[in-house]
Amino acid sequence: MNAEFLHKVSEEILHRYQIDRSLYGKFDVKRGLRNADGSGVLAGLTKISSVIGSRKENGKLVPVEGELRYRGIDIRDLVSGIQEDGRHGFSEVTYLLLFAKLPTRAELKEFEAYLYPRMALDKRLIATTILQFTSSHVMNAMQRVVLTLYSLDENPDDISIPNVVRQCLELIAKFPAIIAYSYRALRNKFHGDALFINPPKAGYDIAENFLHMLRPTSEFSKLEAEILDLALVLHAEHGGGNNSSFTTHVVSSSNTDTYSAIAAALGSLKGPLHGAANANVMYMMANIKENVKDWADRDEVAAYIEKILRKEAHDRTGLVYGMGHAVYTKSDPRAKILKEKARELAEVKGRMDEFNLYTAVEELTPGLFQKVKQSDKVISPNVDFFSGFVYDMLGFPVEIYTPLFAMARVVGWSAHRMDELINGGRIIRPAYKSVAEPQPYVPIDQRK
């Protein structure tokens, strides 16, 4: 009876909700808040970051090499400066994005002394929200923990900047433990794995503590910590228009509390159209590895990629996951940076054959895409093309790929929340035009 009812009303919904697609063009609706050329509708201004993948010439978008800047500083220069000093950079990038300036050594030391001791979670929260009400999805577990932290905050609704900064820094510090413990609880409840809770270790930074808390042995190499820190740096921020950052702007514009805003951003990122790209790359590459006999045979690899593009292989969507981006065209600077570290890790882990396969897919897909789709669109690998492979080499399960994205991007969300509170001024309220035909009210006994 219940199934029949749901099937019946669902059929009615599918029929009655439909809108004539031609009406979107008639009323010039910016579907997905995109312009006709695919660029985003200008909805705000920001100093936090800039993402460039094309330029306009004679009214047309022309592909250019990708550029990402944090507070005006090229991501390549940031990473290069950090690596030349032989140190981790996530705390420095967090400082830069939140406080709009590069810290001095003294300022960075002071900041880390404030941030790192706040990584631990309240034991009551672990015992109840994480271990008693265990979720089957880490992203939903993260949302619930974030909302529970509202209850543990003595001043949760104050949206003054000093209070919001405090709340954001505590969330940034706690995300590694939230993810590690939520995953361990999931494995214990649904798969029978042994449960262990490693508390954060003094002297470890964000990347080191995450590896320490997630792994039963708490052991990790210097290179593993370096590449995780780099991944966090590269994922920390990507403009105000991506779905989760824009969600942060929309929700923050109502003057709601920080926990509600970040929980909403997590809900956005969980969506497979936003946060699941690197997992999709892994599933696709597993399919390629299974069906291509000789990974070093570029002709065989190309033939299988062509089958994927023609919707004849893998999930038959015609998509080569990790190739192409909403903004970047010729290149994604994050992908270029991460690829080099991925090569270094692959050499150490004995997985260069897989790395070379990734490189072949990266190099072959753009031309095959244009051939099969009969398009002159320029595509290149995005950061997700390599991040899943990196996480796999680090021994991370697919279930925490999107949470790892959140562990980095909570920094960007925090900056965009403060940006909206300081500069927004008005609640975000775009228009929706009704295209429903007027109809009379029918008394209940006369309805069919």
Notable traits:
448 residues; mainly alpha; Citrate Synthase, domain 1; Cytochrome p450-Terp, domain 2; 3-stranded antiparallel sheet; 18 helices; globular
Average pLDDT figure: 96
Q: Which CATH class of the domain at 107-275 and 403-423?
A: Mainly Alpha
CATH homologous superfamily assignment of the domain at 107-275 and 403-423: Citrate Synthase, domain 1
CATH topology of the domain at 107-275 and 403-423: Citrate Synthase, domain 1
Helix content percent band: 55-70%
Count of distinct strands? 3
Note the overall shape: globular
Point out poorly predicted stretches.
Answer: none
Q: Output the structural class.
A: mainly alpha
How can the largest sheet be summarized? 3 strands, antiparallel
Widest β-sheet, arrangement of strands: 1-2-3
Instruction: Give the name of the CATH architecture of the domain at 107-275 and 403-423.
Output: Orthogonal Bundle
> What distance separates the N and C termini?
21 Å
Instruction: Count up the helices.
Output: 18
Radius of gyration, rounded? 24 Å
Topology as H/E string?
HHEEEHHHHHHHHHHHHHHHH
Proportion of beta-strand residues: under 5%
